[in-house]
Amino acid sequence: MSSVDTADRRHRLGVDLPPPDERESLFTTAVLTGSLAVTSGFGPYWDGRHIFIGKVGSELTIEQGQDAAWISALNCLGALRDLLGSLDAIERIVRLTGWVNAGPEFTKQPAVIDGASSLLLEVLGERGQHTRAALGMASLPFNIPVELEVIAEVRNQS
Amino acid sequence: MSSVDTADRRHRLGVDLPPPDERESLFTTAVLTGSLAVTSGFGPYWDGRHIFIGKVGSELTIEQGQDAAWISALNCLGALRDLLGSLDAIERIVRLTGWVNAGPEFTKQPAVIDGASSLLLEVLGERGQHTRAALGMASLPFNIPVELEVIAEVRNQS
Amino acid sequence: MSSVDTADRRHRLGVDLPPPDERESLFTTAVLTGSLAVTSGFGPYWDGRHIFIGKVGSELTIEQGQDAAWISALNCLGALRDLLGSLDAIERIVRLTGWVNAGPEFTKQPAVIDGASSLLLEVLGERGQHTRAALGMASLPFNIPVELEVIAEVRNQS
Fold first, then answer.
1. Distance, CA of A15 to CA of A17 (rounded, Å)
2. Do C132 and A40 lie within an 8 Å CB cutoff?
3. CB within 8 Å: C138 and B137
């Protein structure tokens, strides 16, 4: 898939990746090790703030959780683009881990994280196919509803 | 260790791996990247349903949690067998992450996940030795008691 | 960075890594696979016992949580040293995952895990830069306040 293809696909979807994250922190947004690119945990941060706050199933609906997962996945892709120069460098997504902030009775973590899985498939096509774990957390930083990490395999540069 | 050895060992243990998972989903059950095979998160799904449901320590006993972990580990091995063709392709297990669905007072996650560690060692012998994290979750999908992921190193094919 | 540099840096910081862990268990403390070294989950175990117990934000302060994270990170580095012979074998830290034992209202997981991130940067300098996820757990083994895992890239041995 060429660079034009990925850009085209994103354009058709109306997907804009976020600008590089310049917040100060003790950790980095993504690292390349061998052929693997690993992101930090990302939440639904957009335009300078977390645009969803609260627990899914009580303070937020499933649909809002899905939207938060969608945006969190955009942030993971943004971190990979910043690391690699382009999403075209991604051979495939290896892993999506989705942490959902929810109470003890919540059972629909998979539906929430589908919002992130869908984005990966929409933007990257079959390169977006991935393994996944969806988990329910007692709490998350800043009371965000979703946090995600992505591990991607990078194309052979030679 | 030859293919016969692993099959023999499984036979002696009475361990049957599950049939391939044909449920529809937005993610895959396992991925091979370089020499690493990574599974999705698996629960105690068997014969078309999750055969344990509920939180360990309140709705289920530790022993039931261990059995659920044992079955979840079988499912991880089944996913690796489907991906690799045979468990003989496994050089060693690198990582077992065990998520236990439990209340805030629960402290016996290691005992529960021992049910999965034991299976890996029984089926794979010293190739089953692994690093591990055992964690207590506020909630899990479908209210399953345990979810597991496994990362394995695959034998050099050349 | 030479061996002397790392030892010097640790000495200046007054950082002593723990002795090898000889507790019996069904899993190992760290594994090398390809160029990646992966630790098991470690808590604030020191001198034969977990020196912090309880949930952060209710039973323990943020500062105590940070200290627990600092000690847990020392244990991860100790496991890597035992595996690799020396911390000088570390090319860089790839990943720190920090699980904080806390109630549903807790939101300061990043501040707690900064205690671990700081140690990695102090001991390893720029080789200690890492990706990170900080998560809130319903419960942890033995009611420890923090559990950590570290993934490191190992230097090319040739």
1. 6
2. yes
3. yes
